[in-house]
Amino acid sequence: MKATKQLLDEIIELSPQAEKIIVQPASSLLHVPVSLQGETDLEPLLKNALAFAEEKLDEIVSLKAVFGSAAVPSLFTENEQSLNALSAAPVRNRLNVRSQVEQALQQPAERQNEFDVRRVKQEQKWQLPLLPTTTIGSFPQTKEVRSARQKWRKGEWSTEQYDQYIQSEIDKWIRIQEEIGLDVLVHGEFERTDMVEFFGEKLPGFAFTRGGWVQSYGTRCVKPPIIYGDVEFGQPMTVKETEYAQTLTQKPVKGMLTGPITILNWSFVRTDIPRKYVAYQIALALREEVEALERAGIEMIQVDEPALREGLPLKREEWQEYLDWAVNAFRISTSSVQDTTQIHTHMCYCEFQDIIDSIQALDADVISIETSRSHGELISSFEEQTYPLGIGLGVYDIHSPRVPSKEEMLSLIERALEVLDPQLFWINPDCGLKTRGQEETVAALSHMVSAAETYREKVTSNSLKVK
User: Fold this and answer.
1) CATH number of 103-466
2) Which of 344, 375, 399, 447 is catalytic?
3) So what's the pLDDT on residue 217?
4) What would the DSSP string read from start to end of 433-455?
C-alpha cells in the first residue's frame, strides 16, 4: 500500500491535470477470491498480509482519500507491518530449503543415461506388448466416494474407516482393469480431491482458504492453494495407496504425481522471490516423493504437467526463459531415478506444436497428450518433426459421456502411426476419468484395449507375410 501511494504521488507530479486521474485496479478482480471475511482458519500472520477483491477495493478507496496528500493512513502502516512480519517469519526463511535449491542448480538435472539406453533396460524389465495400454490416472469419483470423504473430513468416519473404504475402491478398480486387459494399471486416486490441493495439503509452505473460489473457465471454479512460505517435503504423500494397489496385481501400477509447474501455475504464488525458485522448491519436494515411490517398488511414475504451456509469459520473447526453468524444474523432480524406472508425464488443455522442443527436453520416457479434439493438427506437427521418445496420443475424448467405437479408436491409432514409431507408441484416453461414470468408463476402455489388440494382430500378420 505504501509503495502504491508513492507511485501514485509520482504520477500526480507528472500529470498536468491531476484531478482527472482515476484510481482503479490494474486488472479485473475476476480471478481473486471475493473476501477474507470468512477465512477464520488462516493464520493471522498470513491473513493480515492478504487482500482479496473486497479488501483491494477498500485499499483503492483509501488511496483516493489521501490523493495528493502527505498523510499516511493507519491502514497503510498496518499493511506494511503485516508484510514485514510475514517476510521475517521462519516459514519464509527455511535455510535448508534455500541451500538445497542452490545445490540443485549447481549440477545438471539429467538421468543417468540417454533415452536409448534407458529404453533397452526398461523393455527388458517390463516385457510389455506392442502398443501398451494404460490410463492417465484417475477413475470415477462417484457420489459415494465424495460422500465418504466428507464423512471423514467432518469426523463422522475415523481415518481407519476411510482408509478401508479407499482400499475397497482400489480393490474394485484393480480387478476391473485386469478384466478389461489393460497392460499398465493405476490405483485410481480415490483419496484425492483436486490434483493440486491434494499435494499442497501435504507440503509445508502451502495454505488453504475456506471460500477462496475463483472462476477457472465457463462455470468451473477452483480453490487454489496459497504458496506463502518455503516449500519442502514433509512425508510420503502417495506411497501408501500406490504400494497397496501394487500388492493386488502382477502388472505394473503407475505412481501418480502432479508436476512442479502445474502446482505452481494453479496456485496463488508468493511474490517476494522469483517464481522459478518456488518451482525449484516444489520440484525438490516432489523428487523426494519420486524416490520414496521407487524405494517402495513403484518403478513406473507419472508426473503430470497439464499447466506447462499456460504459464507462458504474454510476451513471446520471454517464452524461452520460462520454458528453460520450467523444464529444469520437471527434470529436477524426475532425474534421480534408476534407468529401469520409467518416468511418464501427461499434458492437456494446450496447443503443443509451438513448444514441442521443450516437451522433448523434459526427457520423460513416455508422454501422453490430450489430442482427440485436435488429433490432425498435432499429427501434422509430427510429420515435420520426429518425436524420439515414448508417446501416447489420446484415442478418445473423456470430456463426453459418449462411448466411441473400437473402429474410431483404431482409425486414430493408424493415423498416428503413419508418423510415429509403433515401438514407442502407447494407447490411452485423453485425460483422467474422474468425471465419468463406471459403465461408460469400462465400455470405452474395453473398446480401446480391443483396438490395440486388433492393431497388434495386424502387425503380426503383416510381418508373417513378409517372412
Assistant:
1) 3.20.20.210
2) 399
3) 75
4) -TTS-HHHHHHHHHHHHHHHHHH
